[in-house]
Design brief:
The protein has 1442 residues and is mainly beta. Helices cover 9% and strands 36% of the residues. The strands form 27 sheets. Strands 14, 17, 18, 21, 22 and 23 form a six-stranded mixed β-sheet that branches. Strands 25, 28, 29, 32, 33 and 36 form a six-stranded mixed β-sheet that branches.
Length: 1442
Amino acid sequence: MAAGRARRPLGPLWLLGPLRLGLLLLGQPGPAAASRSGSPSPRTGSVLRTFTPFHFLVEPMDILSVRGASVIMNCSAYCETPPKIEWKKDGTLLNLVSDDRRQLLPDGSLLINSVVHSKHNKPDEGYYQCVATVESLGTIVSRTAKLTVAGLPRFTSQPESSSVYKGNSAILNCEVNVDLAPFVRWEQDRQPVFLDDRVFKLPSGALIISNATDTDGGLYRCIIESGGTPKYSDEAELKILPDPEEPQNLVFARQPSSLTKVTGQSVVFPCVAVGFPTPYVRWTRNEEELTTEGSERFLFLAGGSLVISEVTEEDVGMYTCIADNGNETIEAQAELAVQVPPEFLKRPANIYAHESMDIVFECEVTGKPTPTVKWVKNGDMVIPSDYFKIVKEHNLQVLGLVKSDEGFYQCIAENDVGNAQAGAQLIILDLAPATTGPLPSAPRDVVATLVSTRFIRLTWRTPVSDPQGDNLTYSIFYTKEGINRERVENTSRPGETQVMIQNLMPETVYVFRVVAQNKHGPGESSAPLKVATQPEVQLPGPAPNIRAYANSPTSVTVTWETPLSGNGEIQNYKLYYMEKGQDSEQDVDVAGLSYTINGLKKYTEYSFRVVAYNKHGPGVSTQDVVVRTLSDVPSAPPQNLTLEVRNSKSIMLHWQPPPAGTHSGQITGYKIRYRKVSRKSDVTESIGGTQLFQLIEGLERGTEYSFRVAALTVNGTGPATDWISAETFESDLDETRVPEVPSSLHVRPLVTSIVVSWTPPENQNIVVRGYAIGYGIGSPHAQTIKVDYKQRYYTIENLDPSSHYVITLKAFNNVGEGIPLYESAVTRPHSVPDPSPMMPPVGVQASILSHDTIRITWADNSLPKNQKITDARYYTVRWKTNIPANTKYKTANATTLSYLVTGLKPNTLYEFSVMVTKGRRSSTWSMTAHGTTFELVPTSPPKDVTVVSKEGKPRTIIVNWQPPSEANGKITGYIIYYSTDVNAEIHDWVIEPVVGNRLTHQIQELTLDTPYYFKIQARNSKGMGPMSEAVQFRTPKAESSDKMPNDQASGSAGKGSRPVDIGPDYKPPLGGSNSPHGSPTSPLDSNMLLVIIVSVGVITIVIVVIVAVFCTRRTTSHQKKKRAACKSVNGSHKYKGNSKDVKPPDLWIHHERLELKPIDKSPDPNPIMTDTPIPRNSQDITPVDNSMDSNIHQRRNSYRGHESEDSMSTLAGRRGMRPKMMMPFDSQPPQPVISAHPIHSLDNPHHHFHSGSLASPTRSYLHHQVNPWPIGTSMSHSDRANSTESVRNTPSTDTMPASSSQTCADHQDPESTTGAYLANAQEEDSAQNLPTAHVRPSHPLKSFAVPAVPPAGSTYDPALPSTPLLTQQAPNHPVHSVKTASIGTLGRTRPPMPVVVPSAPDVQETTRMLEDSESNYEPDELTKEMAHLEGLMKDLNAITTA
């Protein structure tokens, strides 16, 4: 219908938005105000629009007709313009123009001539509806009326001959179908029967004759006259018999049957009883006697039938017919149910509205059964949609009005017994033209600041025309994309520039625009803004058909079905249950669709609900279902059983019910058992009602009886009380007078109480029911207390100290109080001892529970051994932290021996102490206990993040920061995120980890003239903290003129390599001619370089041959020793990474005496200025500094960072002072360490690098082009930096060329040697992911070798995993002059005397060498080994000289 019709396109912008004008005129608050607080003014400009009266004067009613009759369906409608009337039958318009049987009367009624009805053709029966239409105004429809056509005359039962005693009642049956019942009449002897209250016809057609007389005898028949020929039944004879001489049994000839009627109809309950004597019939309703006096609607017919006219809802109930003839009584019951057609409690009201507004037509109906409501607009059904919604069961809400929504809306209510309609008119006003004056321009910068699944928050800036905007209101128009029906939301107060749009659909695109409005009217609209709501997580709906039933007194079974809106596979269910009246819910996980809960309380109400879970989480809970567990016998006996001897033959019992929670059902009574104490076997039982007392009479005089009581439920008898005994009086006591005076009264005063004791009166023959004690200061009448007759003492409490009290005692019985006995007493004075201090608590302990909670426990020696507190003492706990120093104590009180201190700061040391207070006495503070709260992830980001460019290196930047203010623990590192796009997803940013608590970091190889954004995140042992705000930094436009040569030559180092800076601590060699990175300053021609390369190659081959020959001639014993060492070293490859706890001391080894001394580790080199770049690929490696702790930490955190550049070792400087060698026996296996040795005689102060090592600045990197024979020593930047002094302190000797560093398989052929190396290299690489520029020799005494260039034929595939070592080739590069380092330099050539020295094995670990007994060298072995090597060097010198 209307919802589906085309909507008007959006109008000019100046029209969109002034819809609040009408609202403002009335001071209305918002968009839906039309439906809440009236309507806009109907006056728009000079045009006045009013509501047009348009309604039905007469509506069609239900009609019962017969075949061939004529029927008129009445209808008449009123309007100023005469409406056009049409008719619908069964929802379809009738074409009356060409219909010869049906015609429209002038008033609008429908005439049907000669109703047609047969078994297979029923064209006229059905539902009719009148439709009234006024052009340009609208359409309304009437209620629907049912036309029923009675069927063909047919008897379902016919009268039968019978006889009846005079005075009794007779029934003659004539059953026809319900439609024909009104057309039935009776004849007696072919004459019509006149009906009255003695002879009457039932609605079914049967005839009842009450109080029969002789004249009632004859032949009876019934006739159906439904138009056409009457149909007669068979005739039946009724005989009247005289009264019988003997009584006849009382029976019902016709009983009432249950009926359902509609309000306003009449009801007949037949009740015909026959018997002798003639019975009398009476009626009850809901077990109350029913009388007809004063009621015009209730009528008793002769013979006892009941007629109720104009039935109402109050008549509902159970009706009972009771027949009584003096000899016997019989009953019959029937229930009356009443149905109510729909009625309107609130009818829809006419509404004025503007376009884009939301309105609500209200409609409240009642009826029984509950009516259904549907809405019609201009005669067409309203189909619910996104914009037409049924709210609050019956109301119609129209969202985002458009002009075509005008018209008449009708609420049609319908149930099984009727229908009704009520309508209202909607007028959509044209927008008032703006008054003269400036209008606002469009609001600026409309953005969605919050987008959820079902709501969006919009914000905007004030228009340019009104920057203050204090008096502007705003209308926000929105619609689904592609739909022209706009809705509007208005801001709640002037000047507000944000609004929350609610009730949106998930995952839907909406279009928003904002219009500002001032006193002159609405201004321009903002540009449309498209926003898509978030998708909604698909959670399960509620499980349908949840049911709970009790299986036993302690168990309940709950069942349910799978949710229809499962939205994904259900993983499990959670069943929640709770005892009624409690507030703590329990739950249990269930895999299936039912569960039985055991262990519940008996006869207790529980509520149950079920929540389904899928992969997204918990779904919607079901409604609670409540069920009570079954009852059982009580589980506890009655309480406080007391016996009161009344006289010599009776005893009164009093008791209380069993404790609450033990009844296990409804207490239905109590069972009392009693017996004589002397004869325990003879027990008498008495069952009473629910009263809590019982008088047991008929007892014997002067006899002792025992009694016990048990509670009863429908399930049986519960446990009984213990036996309690009392003795009846020997003779009946006198209770015709008051008791005599008690025989004695004694008082004992205390400070605030007086103990009163007494003895009973001497005359024991008068009944005493109890005693009355009166007391007061100076007068005994201030207070009175009554006690039981058995009591002999009482303590009067809460008295004043040092006060004079008068006390009186009287015995009383049911007649009255006896003569009082007086006594006086003075309470004792209140002595106040000085409070002595209490002992302080001991054993105070602090147990850390979390990052902000510590439990304090203690013991109190002033308590008994079980440490149970029985008095009013309390404990005070105080605590503070020493940071900052002036922190004040916080305190809290506790009544137990522990206290939970919450709200503490993470990772903070607190001190705690406790004191105890009892009354006015307090202890001193206990000894303190200390506790440090656990760490928590940082809750604030690093502060003061700054980014600066590195001087002279435009592609390198330095990031500085300060630790987070809320570190919540020891900072173990930072992560730097940087990106060129500040809006990129965080997982697309580049990550640079920083290990430790350093506060600066370098990032290299950035792109020039590019803005970068940096964020920093701190981490501690608990995890990552929040990120800092992004900091922008733009790299310089061009590299500076003093650009480092390594930037130009980096391409030769292999893909992805990056230059490494030496750092500011670098000192150029004295007299050297090369740049800080070894770049040449005086180039040689290429021919000279070629000669050098060829010469070096020849020398290298000669050296390799010599070494091979020499190695094969070594002694057998030395071979074994070497193999043992090799085996030990290879064994150490299986390092597990946890050796960082073992750190043997570093050793200085003097070259001449080989003395071994421990030396201190070098201090951490400049921890603030070390950078940790991530290698861009496996070749992008940076030399590592000497601080091993940070390296270990890096590896533990699996970040591939390497300390470099600014981390200059101070150790190298120190070792340069002495001609000794640092042997760093560190416990960190994967980081090879430089081996060094002093040089004995150097002829000249300048030495040359071998052309194959460090030939270019980029060769300071490690590469995978590895020589098959491992290199024993290497040189680091830090060693080079301080090498000058060590050269000066070294005696001169012949220079040595680089020698080949041999593997452990010295004497194997070259192929096997290479294989051994490859195996070792692969094994190492698997254990070490972080290649570094340090190569550690595998044996302390095998570090005196210098490497040689490999044989020309040796090749190695760089794709295999290997330990990256220094590059062997650097062609086309001149030789440089460099000072010799104190640490063994790599590949030095010292012309002209080459010396060959066997090197250490290729294994890069030393820790296992120190630990392994096979490879341990004692001092004498070291001396022998050294002497052997010195001799060896002399032999080699001699060979090479020759």
